[in-house]
Specification:
- This protein has a single domain, classed as Nucleotidyltransferase, domain 5 (2-Layer Sandwich).
- The chain is mainly alpha-helical.
- It has helices at 10-13, 26-37, 47-53, 70-76, 86-94, 105-128; strands spanning 42-44, 63-65.
- α3 (47-53) links the parallel β1 (42-44) and β2.
- The model has no long low-confidence stretch (mean pLDDT 93).
- The chain is globular.
- The protein contains 6 helices and 2 strands.
- A two-stranded parallel ribbon has the order 1-2.
- One of its GO terms (molecular function) is nucleic acid binding.
């Protein structure tokens, strides 16, 4: 069912009611995203956040989540359960600052993709060897992966 938006958080998002007047419904967006990612490898940071918001799941073998990549964690000396902020990963491994002007989704997506590309060969080799290169996602989001 369609529920009214109670707080647009305009100061943070810049969104106003008129901006979303003709926006697609949640169900429409969910269906579009489901169709777009079906049979695709998806790359990102903390993918469970986005999958859970859309009430979707995706095959774990088809995810490349830089938040969970063990090579990054070992290099930084953190436990598997510790979440390393994306901006810290990008600064450490790419030598680049992101988020200087707040959270910009396109910037974050590009940064996650750049991180993945920087170690893609190693990542895929681990998978080809029948191992898994990532820590597990938070247990509360295990249902996001099949």
């Amino acid at each position: 069912t369609r529920q009214p938006i109670r707080d647009y958080r305009t100061a943070l998002t810049g969104l106003r009611p008129t901006d979303l007047a003709s926006a697609p419904t949640f169900i429409e967006v969910q269906s579009r995203v489901r169709a777009l990612i079906r049979t695709k490898i998806i790359v990102g940071y903390a993918l469970w956040d986005f999958l859970s918001l859309l009430n979707l799941s995706h095959p774990a073998i088809d995810t490349r989540d830089v938040a969970l990549f063990m090579s990054f964690r070992r290099t930084l000396g953190v436990r598997p359960s510790t979440m390393i902020p994306l901006k810290d990963l990008v600064l450490r491994f790419m030598g680049r600052n992101i988020g200087l002007y707040g959270e910009v989704p396109v910037e974050q997506a590009r940064a996650a993709l750049d991180l993945f590309r920087s170690c893609e060969q190693m990542w895929e080799e681990v998978i080809r060897s029948s191992s898994w290169p990532c820590a597990l996602p938070p247990i509360a989001h295990a249902n996001c992966f099949t």
